[in-house]
Design goal:
The protein is an alpha+beta fold. It has helices at 2-21, 287-311, 328-337, 361-387; strands at 29-33, 38-40, 51-60, 65-72, 75-78, 87-88, 99-101, 110-119, 125-137, 145-148, 154-156, 161-166, 174-180, 186-190, 194-197, 206-213, 222-223, 227-232, 236-239, 259-263, 269-271. Strand 4 and strand 5 form a beta hairpin. Helix 3 (328-337) crosses helix 4 (361-387). The longest helix has 27 residues, at 361-387.
C-alpha cells in the first residue's frame, strides 16, 4: 500500500504538467449562413508521450441531442443520419480536431461540444472538452462586385476576356448579366455568374452590369455598378518572314512562317488571329530529292540526244550511181574482157549498188564496166526481138 501511494505521489507532478499543456480551445459562439458551410474550431497543443485516444462531437438541439462524430483507433464515424456526408474532421493535422459542416440547415443550430481523451505514457487517461453555441441565419445577397479576368477594361479586337459577378449571402445565389446603363434600357445577356468572350469585336464596346438575388428576400435584387468595356479595332500589319542568322553568319535551316502583329497607338503589339494576310511558305528540299531530280533530268537529256542522232540524216549521204550505156562499142569491150555472163532472166535486175564513198577507184571502175556490159546485153536482146 505504501508503494502505491508513493507511486501516485511521484506521478502527480507529471499528470499535472500534462493536464496543463493539454487544453482545448474554441469559440463560445459562432454564426453560420443558411445553405452555406461553417467550421467549429477545436484545437490543442500536442504534448510528447501523450497520445490522443478518442474524439467526440456532440450536439444539443431544442428537443434532441446526440453524438454527431466519433473517432477512435477504428476510424471515423458519423452517428447522426442528418449529418451524413456533411461533417468531417481533419486527419493530417495533429492537434486540430475542428468540425466542418457543409450545407447548413436551420435545424443545425444548437450547442456543440468537442471532447478529447488522451493516454499518457503511464497509461493514465486525460479528458478535456469545449462547448460552442451555433446559430444558423439567413443572409440576403449583398451588392455584387464585378471582377475582370485581366487588369483594365480596354482590349484589342480579337482578344478574349471575361467578367465575373461576385456576391455574398445565403446560397443559392442567382446572377444575371445585362448590357446597358443600370435603371435604363438594358439587354439581358446571361444567367450565369460569368460573362465571357472568346473573340472581342468593336461592337462589344459598351456598359455592362450584373444582378444578384437569393431566397432570403423574394424580389430583393442587388445590382452592381456598371463597368465600361472598350474594344479597339486596331490595324494589322504583316511582318515579312525572314531567316534567323546565327553568330557564324549562316542561315538556320528553318522554315519561315508569316507573323501577323496588331500595332496599337502606343506601339504595343497583340497577337492577331483575324484579319491575317498569309505569305507563301518557303520550303527546302532534302539532299536525296535534289540528287534524284538531277539524275532524272540527265536521263531525259540523254534520251533526247540519242533520238536526235538516230533520226537525223547523215551529212554525207551515200550516193549510188548506176549508169546504162546503150553504145555498141561498150558491148565489144565487154566481149574482149571476157567477164560477161548471160543473165538468168531477161527481166531480172542483177545490178549491184555500192556507195561511192570508201571505195577505191579500181573497184569503182570495175563495177562501171560490169554495169555497162549488162546494159549493152539487154539492149542487144531488145534489138533482136525487134528484128524477129
Amino acid at each position: 500500500m505504501g508503494v502505491l501511494v508513493r507511486a501516485i505521489v511521484l506521478m502527480s507532478p507529471l499528470l499535472f504538467c500534462n493536464a496543463a499543456f493539454l487544453d482545448l480551445t474554441g469559440p463560445s459562439e459562432i454564426k453560420g449562413v443558411w445553405k452555406g458551410s461553417t467550421t467549429l474550431p477545436c484545437a490543442y497543443l500536442p504534448v510528447e508521450d501523450v497520445v490522443q485516444q478518442t474524439l467526440r462531437w456532440t450536439v444539443v438541439h431544442d428537443q434532441s441531442s446526440g453524438t454527431v462524430f466519433w473517432r477512435d483507433v477504428s476510424g471515423d464515424h458519423v452517428l447522426l443520419s442528418e449529418y451524413r456526408d456533411r461533417v468531417s474532421v481533419p486527419k493530417d493535422t495533429p492537434g486540430n480536431v475542428s468540425l466542418h459542416i457543409l450545407n447548413l440547415e436551420i435545424s443545425d443550430r444548437g450547442t456543440y461540444t468537442c471532447q478529447v481523451t488522451w493516454r499518457a505514457s503511464n497509461n493514465s487517461l486525460i479528458t478535456k472538452d469545449v462547448t460552442t453555441k451555433v446559430e444558423v441565419v439567413k443572409v440576403a445577397a449583398t451588392k455584387p462586385v464585378v471582377r475582370a479576368s485581366e487588369p483594365g477594361l480596354t482590349f484589342p479586337a480579337g482578344a478574349s476576356t471575361s467578367l465575373t459577378c461576385v456576391a455574398s449571402g445565403s446560397p443559392p445565389i442567382s446572377y444575371r448579366w445585362f448590357r446597358g446603363a443600370p435603371g435604363g434600357k438594358a439587354l439581358l445577356l446571361s444567367s450565369q455568374a460569368q460573362l465571357a468572350w472568346d473573340s472581342l469585336q468593336p461592337s462589344d464596346t459598351g456598359e455592362y452590369y450584373c444582378e444578384a438575388e437569393n431566397r432570403v428576400r423574394a424580389g430583393a435584387v442587388q445590382r452592381s455598378d456598371a463597368v465600361e468595356l472598350t474594344v479597339r479595332d486596331l490595324p494589322t500589319t504583316t511582318v515579312a518572314s525572314r531567316r534567323d542568322v546565327g553568330t557564324s553568319g549562316r542561315h538556320h535551316p528553318t522554315t519561315d512562317l508569316p507573323i501577323t502583329v496588331a500595332t496599337s497607338e502606343n506601339g504595343v503589339g497583340y497577337p492577331e488571329k483575324n484579319y491575317t494576310t498569309q505569305n507563301l511558305q518557303r520550303t527546302h528540299l532534302p539532299l536525296y530529292m535534289v540528287i534524284l531530280i538531277a539524275v532524272a533530268c540527265g536521263a531525259v537529256v540523254f534520251l533526247a540526244v540519242f533520238l536526235i542522232i538516230c533520226i537525223r540524216k547523215p551529212k554525207d549521204a551515200q550516193v549510188y550511181e548506176v549508169k546504162f550505156h546503150n553504145s555498141r562499142a561498150a558491148s565489144s569491150r565487154c566481149e574482149s574482157t571476157g567477164h560477161y555472163e548471160e543473165p538468168i532472166s531477161l527481166t531480172e535486175n542483177n545490178y549491184v549498188t555500192e556507195p561511192v564513198k570508201n571505195k577505191s577507184s579500181e573497184e569503182i571502175n570495175t563495177r562501171k564496166d560490169e554495169y555497162e556490159c549488162v546494159g549493152n546485153t539487154q539492149e542487144s536482146v531488145y534489138e533482136v526481138g525487134d528484128t524477129v
